[in-house]
Structure formats: C-alpha cells, structure tokens
Amino acid sequence: QVQLVESGGGLVQPGGSLRISCAASGSIRSFYAMAWHRQAPGKQRELVAFITLGGFTNYADSVKGRFTISRDNAKNTVYLQMNSLKPEDTAVYYCSEDRGPGYGAGRFGSWGQGTQVTVSS
Fold first, then answer.
1. What is the sign, positive or negative, of the torsion defined by CA atoms of 35, 18, 112, 63?
2. Which of 7, 50, 85, 89 is deepest in the core (most CB within 10 A)?
3. Coil, helix or strand for 21?
4. Distance between CA atoms of residues 95 and 5, nearest Å
5. Collapsed DSSP state (helix, strand, coil) of residue 66
6. pLDDT for 73-97, tens place per residue?
7. Beta-strand relationship, 10-12 and 115-119
8. Confidence of residue 101 (pLDDT cuts 50, 70, 90)
9. In 1-121, where do the E strands start and end?
10. Which residues, 6+ apart, have CB-to-CB distance to 84 below 8 Å?
11. Strand-pair partners of 67
C-alpha cells in the first residue's frame, strides 16, 4: 500500500498564501485521482479538491478561485496552493487516494497523517 506524507503546513496571516505537499512512497499514476481534504476542530472532514490522472480538477465551493490542486507525477507528489487564506480555512489538511465517485463509501483510501494549517493574525 502506498504511504502518503503531507508537509508544508503552518501559521499564516489572513490573506496570505501557503503551499502544502503530499508525497507518495510509490507511483501516483496508478490512482484514478488524488484528493485533499480538511478537518476543522469539531467539524466533519470535508473534501477540498481532487485531481484526476488526466488533470481534471474539482473544488469545494468554499475554496473555488482561491485554492489550486496540482500534481507532479515524476515526483509522485500532489500540491495544494492556497491563496487569500481566511481564518475559516484553519484545519488539519489530509491527502488521499481517490478511487472515483463510483466507489461510494470506499472512494478514498491511503490517508496521510495530515498537516496543520492555521490562519490567524
């Protein structure tokens, strides 16, 4: 099973930017897609964005126009560029394999340990 390791989180002021990374121990070309999720204290984990092997992307309405997901297949790494950050973006961010919407509850797997992003002045 591929291991995923997130990095790049930290403290940033409102309006600032941050790029977080997800490095895989094996090839991400074998996955239908890769996804970023987040979980704020006291809230359920939510899907933030995903990117397919072919480069199709999709975003949650709350981050559309501010966040950009990308992938570097040669480096087996997925990125999330976050701009115009807001305090409500504060959460632990996780990456995962995305098997596709047809898998229902089994859609996501191979979760990383998460990286904390805190947006505060």
1. negative
2. 50
3. strand
4. 8
5. coil
6. 999 999 999 999 999 999 999 999 9
7. parallel
8. confident
9. 4-7, 10-12, 18-24, 33-39, 46-52, 57-59, 67-72, 77-82, 91-98, 108-109, 115-119
10. 15, 17, 66
11. 82
CA–centroid distance for 23 within its chain: 11
Q: Cα–Cα distance between 4 and 94 in angstroms, integer?
A: 9
* Residue type for position 71: R
The distance between the two most distant Cα atoms of the chain, rounded to a whole number of Å, is 41
Per-residue pLDDT tens digits for 36-72: 999 999 999 999 999 999 999 999 999 999 999 999 9
Distance CA 98, CA 78 (A): 12
Place of tokens 């239908």: 32
Joined together, the tokens standing for residue 113 give 């340990």
